[in-house]
Design brief:
- The complex is a heterodimer of chains A (388) and B (144).
- Chain A is an alpha/beta fold and 388 residues long.
- Chain A has a domain of 133 residues: Thiolase/Chalcone synthase (Peroxisomal Thiolase, Chain A, domain 1, 3-Layer(aba) Sandwich), CATH 3.40.47.10.
- Chain A contains 13 helices and 11 strands.
- A 9-stranded mixed beta sheet of chain A has the order 3-2-4-7-1-8-11-10-9, sandwiched between helices. A two-stranded antiparallel sheet of chain A has the order 5-6.
- In chain A, helix 2 links the parallel strand 2 and strand 3.
- In chain A, helix 3 packs across helix 13.
- Chain B has 144 residues and is mostly beta strands.
- Chain B is 5% helix and 34% strand.
- Chain B is built from 1 helix and 8 strands; from the N terminus they run αββββββββ.
- In chain B, strands 4-5-6-8-7 form a 5-stranded mixed beta barrel. In chain B, strands 2-1-3 form a 3-stranded antiparallel beta sheet.
- The chains are: A alpha/beta (388), B mainly beta (144).
- Chains A and B meet through helix 4, helix 5 and strand 5 of A and strand 4, strand 5 and strand 6 of B.
- The complex binds zinc ion (ZN).
Chain lengths: 388, 144
């Protein structure tokens, strides 16, 4: 069996409240990816739709999208792994192309978080954990990641300012990303100014500025066999490595709180499959739903030793000009985090980088890029390695 | 009418807001009412579970016995919330935490009367049943 490529990428602009339906939102990412691949709906022989269903009013969105995107009568499939749904979609597309069952697949990620009311969304927030054993204590995502931040600070002496520095980096690039939801600058001073919302505690030790921006958005990847890739694309980007792992939902079942085991394991799998090491990665997108998540990603992916993440950000090595540029599109923190669309958007950025088409955020001559996409509180770990 | 009474929905009493009521391990709630927080232990392979469970994932047995959590555990990590999900607003501020008992860990809340500046990772704490102001039951971690 031959290689598998990504030959088209697209995403909608990420916005607070998308002024259209979910199928219209999905169409935006799909159109950009199809134009990018110079493909027509006839060329696509299957679609995979990725989202977190608790935000949807529509039952079984995959069928609705297949109609709206012109993808009948081809089969369509729906996958979910919370915030990493579209990385899971890519993994399935790879398998389906590699097996020979299909030769060109559209992976459509989306989330219209404003589809439900803010009260409904708040209610769902309270059910994000094991609803039998943890949610009845009043848990929510920021508090879980805060428990990791607390453990990381205790073990390695990481400071709130080290985390704030990650937010400042994200905003540096969010400002120049036309598709980002948050385009304002963020400074270290904003975290220490009592009048500024950035420094307001949410769940200690995390503050408002440590959390990503919610958004509505869609993304789309066109995944193709080697033969189709060569037929359609001058610059196919090859899928070199894929890793996926899980851990327990209940924190009581876990042993490590200064890092995410599923991310580390997914990373090891992807490096092994691609035959590369962390040093070979030229540009990366990591799942910075909270600043601490990016800090742990540096360490779980081997860009830094455990505990060494703070030096990596303080020395600006993860800026565009650094030794390992990370999230130079603004990340989830500034670009925004429309759950099911996020992985596809991260992959889109790396594909642009590897094709030297990333414009203002282009890093110098990257050969190999990595995407780290996490679902839940380290529950689903997904790492993808791409090469040109 | 008669059959409805047979529904065992004791789990609806767990926590400030309970999201589920029917489970095979609803005896956990009756033990809470007696002032005990319990683990389950597989009688076939001896594995101890918290949270408690009806089925053993190690040997696939469904034969479990209840044992009380006694002694102290070490505080692994915690966070104090300034915002809460719907239904938990009146509890604010509160801290969620994880205690390590060696054979198992327990996720829960730190008792409201433990001052913030006395909460330290590594400290020894006990687990105790707590009745919430709305009459619901949970358990909290207290200074040992
Ligand atoms: Zn057993």
């Amino acid at each position: 069996m031959g290689k598998v490529a990504i030959i088209g990428v697209g995403q909608s602009t990420f916005v607070r409240k998308y002024p259209g339906s979910i199928k219209e939102l999905a169409f935006e990412g799909f159109r950009e990816a199809m134009n990018d691949a110079q493909a027509t709906a006839k060329n696509i022989d299957a679609s995979i739709v990725c989202s977190a269903p608790e935000y949807d009013k529509q039952r079984s969105p995959a069928g609705v999208f297949a109609e709206y995107l012109g993808l009948n009568p081809q089969p369509t499939f729906y996958v979910e792994s919370l915030c990493s749904s579209s990385s899971t979609g890519l993994r399935l597309a790879y398998s389906m192309v590699k097996s020979g069952l299909h030769d060109m697949i559209a992976v459509v990620g989306f989330q219209k978080m404003s589809e439900i009311t803010s009260a409904e969304s708040q209610e769902r927030m309270g059910r994000g954990a094991d609803i039998q054993w943890e949610s009845p204590f009043g848990t929510m995502m920021p508090a879980y990641y805060a428990m990791y931040a607390r453990a990381h600070m205790e073990k390695y002496g990481t400071k709130p300012e080290d985390l704030a520095a990650i937010r400042v980096k994200a905003a540096t690039y969010g400002q120049i990303n036309e598709k980002a939801v948050y385009r304002k600058p963020v400074t270290m001073e904003m975290f220490s100014d009592p009048e500024n919302i950035m420094g307001r505690p949410v769940a200690s030790p995390l503050r408002v500025g440590d959390a990503c921006a919610n958004a509505d958005g869609s993304s789309c990847l066109i995944v193709a066999s080697e033969e189709k890739a060569k037929e359609f694309s001058k610059k196919p980007v090859w899928i070199l490595g894929l890793g996926a792992a899980t851990t327990t939902v209940n924190l009581a079942g876990r042993d490590l709180f200064s890092g995410l085991t599923a991310a580390r394991q997914a990373g090891e799998q992807a490096y092994k499959m691609a035959g590369v090491t962390p040093k070979d990665i030229d540009v990366a997108e990591v799942h910075d739903c909270f600043t601490i998540a990016e800090m742990m990603a540096y360490e779980n992916l081997g860009f830094a030793e455990p505990g060494g993440g703070k030096e990596l950000i303080q020395s600006k090595e993860t800026y565009k000009e650094g030794s390992i540029p990370v999230n130079v599109d603004g990340g989830l923190l500034s670009k925004g985090h429309p759950i099911g669309a996020t992985g596809g958007s991260q992959i889109r950025t790396i594909v642009h980088q590897l094709r030297d088409e990333a414009g203002d955020i282009q890093v110098k001559n990257p050969e190999i890029g990595l995407i780290h996409n996490i679902g839940g509180v380290g529950l689903y770990g997904n790492v993808t390695i791409l090469g040109r | 009418m008669g059959t409805k009474k047979d529904v065992d929905d004791r789990f609806k009493k767990f926590g400030t807001v309970s999201f589920t009521s029917i489970s095979k391990i609803n005896d956990f709630i009756s033990h809470l009412e007696e002032g005990k927080v319990m683990t389950t232990k597989c009688t076939e392979c001896g594995f101890v579970f918290f949270p408690p469970r009806a089925d053993c994932s190690h040997c696939l047995s469904s034969s479990m016995e209840w044992n009380e959590i006694t002694g102290t555990g070490k505080l692994v990590t915690f966070s104090t919330l300034q915002f809460a999900p719907v239904g938990f607003e009146d509890d604010l501020p509160y801290s969620i935490a994880l205690l390590d008992y060696g054979d198992y860990k327990v996720f829960g809340r730190i008792a409201g009367d433990v001052p913030d500046d006395e909460i330290k990772i590594g400290m020894e704490m006990t687990t105790a049943v707590n009745t919430l102001s709305n009459g619901q039951l949970n358990y909290v971690f207290q200074k040992a």
